[in-house]
Amino acid sequence: MPATLSLPIIDLSSPDHLSNAVSIRQACIECGFFYIVNHGVEKDSVKAFDECRRFFSLPLEEKMKLERKEHRGYTPLDPDLGSKGDSKQSFYIGSLEDSTNANLNQWPSEEQFGFHLRYVFCEDPSELLRNWRPSMESLYWKLFDVGKKLFSLIALSLNVDEDFFEKIGAINKPGAFLRLLYYPGEMGSHEEVCSAHSDFGALTLLITDGVPGLQICRDKLKEPRVWDDVGHIEGAFIVNIGDLMERWTNCLYQSTLHRVKGTGKERYSMALFLDPHPDCVVECIESCCSESSPPSLYLAQIKQNTVSFFGNRSQKLR
Ligand SMILES: O=C(O)CCC(=O)C(=O)O
Ligand SMILES: [Fe+2]
């Protein structure tokens, strides 16, 4: 039986930024995961989950009207994971930085979701997906603001100025993706419904609906892998470090392998993946290297094939 981890809980409303930074440092060194509370995004996340339930319960042919293009929109199965694929459906919303980016997103429109649908699938037809876009945009911006706060706490935790990430142009403009996930609940506890991976970006904010299944493997180089459950705390979000932050910190902070096991129950989750702006140069943060600990070439992880290396993004690296 996997143990349930006791991860640090960071209170974002606390004025004591230093003690938050100390807890974040410890969490990121030990396991790359922690919780945040008092983030101010409770209502928006409840609304967005309602929208997700409404969208994902539509028939497949209707959801496919918003099929993923330019990395945005609906995916019935994860095509990146081979022929079998994970037992999950997803919907991506890309950067809302400006209208060019925002318009690449796929938003449901009344024309696409014709009259028959509105009357057949919704008790109150005026409700169907009408609130999708405002709910998702609001969630996106609120999560992005939380992300900015976290970046400044992470900067403090690394003994650099609180506005370090802002000064280097990493987070002034959002390069973030919001991923909405639906696990239909057809798989039992022996199945991985989201297979083991580490996130390739800098930081992930994860909101789950309380249905268990998320597990992490704290030592990705150890075989056989040992998995621990990440329990649900009502109202708390889960934060984890991605590969890019691991590299930025010279492997001081861990980008931890995680997965979702089936429970036979439907499960919804939403993740905001925070990446630095593509023009931001990523180089080893000064406080994370020294003569005796020069910038790592990251070979151990590459050899083990556990690092996705930022997917296909074109971040400038040194
Ligand atoms: O659904 C979850 O709880 C985890 C999702 C996840 O790890 C991801 O989308 O990268
Ligand atoms: Fe993930």
How does this model look, in words?
Helices cover 27% and strands 20% of the residues. It has 318 residues and is of the alpha+beta class. An 8-stranded mixed sheet has the order 1-2-10-7-12-5-4-3. Helix 9 (299-303) links the parallel strand 13 and strand 14 (316-317). Helix 1 crosses helix 6 and helix 2 packs across helix 6. The termini are far apart. The relative contact order is 0.17. The structure holds 2-oxoglutaric acid (AKG) and fe (ii) ion. The site of 2-oxoglutaric acid has 11 residues, from strand 5, strand 7, strand 11 and strand 12. Fe (ii) ion (FE2) is lined by residues 197, 199, 204, 258.
Task: Give the topology, please.
Elements: E1 9-11, H1 17-30, E2 33-37, H2 42-56, H3 60-63, E3 73-75, E4 89-93, H4 99-104, H5 115-121, H6 132-157, H7 164-167, E5 177-183, E6 192-197, E7 203-208, E8 214-217, E9 228-229, E10 237-241, H8 243-248, E11 257-261, E12 267-274, E13 281-282, H9 299-303, E14 316-317
Parallel strand pairs: 1-2, 13-14
Antiparallel strand pairs: 2-10, 3-4, 4-5, 5-12, 6-11, 7-10, 7-12, 8-9, 8-11
Helix pairs in contact: 1-6, 2-6
Bound molecules: 2-oxoglutaric acid and fe (ii) ion.
